[in-house]
Amino acid sequence: MIASKSIIEKANKLLGKLGTRDPFEIAKAMDIELIVKELGALKGFYKTIYGIPFIFLNKSLDKKTARIVLAHEIGHHILHKEFAAFGFEETSLFSPASRREYEANLFAAEIMISDADVEESLEYGGTVQSLALNLAVSEDFAALKLSAYKFKNSSLQP
């Protein structure tokens, strides 16, 4: 298991290196093969095949969900490579059943939503719902980023 602080640091290191929050650009820059096809109930999955990283996305996903799923799978690529030969299959992004799924969600929220976006939302009395709407992400995803933001800022206090 990876500590939340370490996940946030890894996400921010990647952002600093690549200079983008767009998961499609990140996947391309990281030489991750992206396959979009019909996957039934699966939203997507990450797997390495002969050492090559692949992310499969369900072609039926709307753009907002596809971005979140892709960012989540990039999280698995960064955080859980040792499990990639078996693959990670996503049917529900916010299942509390798995620590690795939580870690990938936290990584995804950190790369997709900036602290400035959270601060702007909070400055205007924003709620999780308004943050999600303004940033075109789910409420669960916005809540996860807000939690990470509060964690980072509380850990900076003396």
Describe this structure in words.
- The chain has a 4-stranded mixed β-sheet with strand order 1-3-2-4, with helices on one face.
- The chain contains 7 helices and 4 strands; from the N terminus they run ααβββαβαααα.
- The protein starts with a helix and ends with a helix.
- It is an alpha+beta fold and 158 residues long.
- Strand 2 and strand 3 form a beta hairpin.
Biggest β-sheet strands, sense, barrel: 4 strands, mixed
Give the mean pLDDT: 85
Helix vs. strand class: alpha+beta
How would you write the strand order of the largest sheet? 1-3-2-4
Q: Multimeric state of these chains?
A: single chain
Q: What's the total number of strands?
A: 4
| Poorly predicted residue ranges | none
Pick out its properties.
4 strands, alpha+beta, 158 residues, four-stranded mixed sheet
What's a concise summary of this model?
With 158 residues, the chain is of the alpha+beta class.
Secondary-structure blueprint:
Layout: H1 4-18, H2 23-29, E1 33-37, E2 44-49, E3 52-58, H3 63-79, E4 88-90, H4 99-112, H5 115-123, H6 128-135, H7 139-155
Parallel strand pairs: 1-3
Antiparallel strand pairs: 2-3, 2-4
